[in-house]
Amino acid sequence: MESNRIYTEEEVAQLIRRAVELEATRSVSRDGGLNAGLTISELEQVAADAGIDPELIQRAAQEFEGYSGVRSIRSSNNTKIKRDEIVCEHWINAVPDNKVLDDLITELNHRYGTSHEDVSWWNKLWDDYAGKAKIRRTPTTLEWQYMDEWQHYTTRVLFQKRGEKFRIRVSKRQRWGMNWGAEGYNYWLLIPLLAVLAPIGGVLSFSTIGFAWPGIISGILTSVLTLPVINYIQTSRLNKHKSEVTDTANDLATLTLQLSDDTRIKEKQKAKEDKTIEIIEVRSDPEEERHQNESGRLRNNLR
Asked: Closest Cα to residue 53, out of 273, 233, 226?
């Protein structure tokens, strides 16, 4: 076999894949056919023998499994609609550093088109943060808060470290603590609709045909038919805000895991590089060595 042959990227992938298959076959025969395939430890050993960082095998396995931690949070099950608050909360297995937290704040600023750096002394003096973000930091928590320019909605994001866990809580409130309402039909709306539409219909009918009851009946029917439309609009509005809170929390959790993994891999690679000692062979000149030996003998004779 030619040792100087250069393989293409596709051929390299095929060779590595075939080597893994052969190693798997050897593993099966060694274990008596009980285990088919390779474990993570065996894959890491194969990678190390091939000059590949075993840490990349761990990351590839996580991506292959679809990030089980991330998959569990890609849903709206953690989102709750309370009386005056929509909230979504996640606890993930990560301990992000300050750089990751800064990246999360940057993501929030980009998502909402704002920045906490735009806050001036005037905003702080009058406590007016409309259209701007506000940040509070403690040793274990980081809170990001944003109020829209119309000051009608306030979004708050809390990042909290607790041991080996990391908490992400996203909430949204309306102005003056207004009730978000419950999903479904609000039959109490029928009372004000009847109180308004029935008299109006009666007056119009009486002024037109001289009888009030056709207009009153029309007002009642209009009220009954308008109620589902109002409920549909209200439910759609509520679902829109709920989806916004859910997507924000899920995206932040996913980004936190990805950035934490990247940071952990870089730190391990840097630690390995720091431990590597480069040995440089210094070749000496024979003439220089002879000259040094003669100088040494001359110094001895002078003594």
From this structure: 273
State the burial class of residue 123 (Cβ atoms within 10 Å of its Cβ: 0-12, 13-18, 19+): middle
Tokens of 5: 């042959």
Predicted TM-score (pTM) of the model is 0.57
**Degrees to nearest 5, angle at CA 247 with 62 and 244:** 175
Q: What tokens were used for 214?
A: 């056709």
pLDDT in tens, 191-219: 776 677 777 877 777 678 777 777 777 87
Among 71, 41, 69, 72, smallest CA distance to 57 is for 41
Closest to 90 in 3D by CA, of 67, 74, 108: 74
8-state DSSP, 129: -
Q: What is the pLDDT of residues 50-97, one digit of tens each?
A: 667 776 776 676 666 544 444 445 555 678 888 888 999 999 888 888
The backbone torsions φ and ψ at residue 162, rounded to the nearest 5 degrees and listed phi first, read -145, 95
Q: Please provide residue 155's backbone torsions phi and psi, each rounded to the nearest 5 degrees.
A: -110, 130
Helix axes 190-209, 213-275, angle to 10 degrees: 140
Concatenating the DSSP letter of every residue in 273-298 gives: HHH-------PPPHHHHHHHHHHHHH
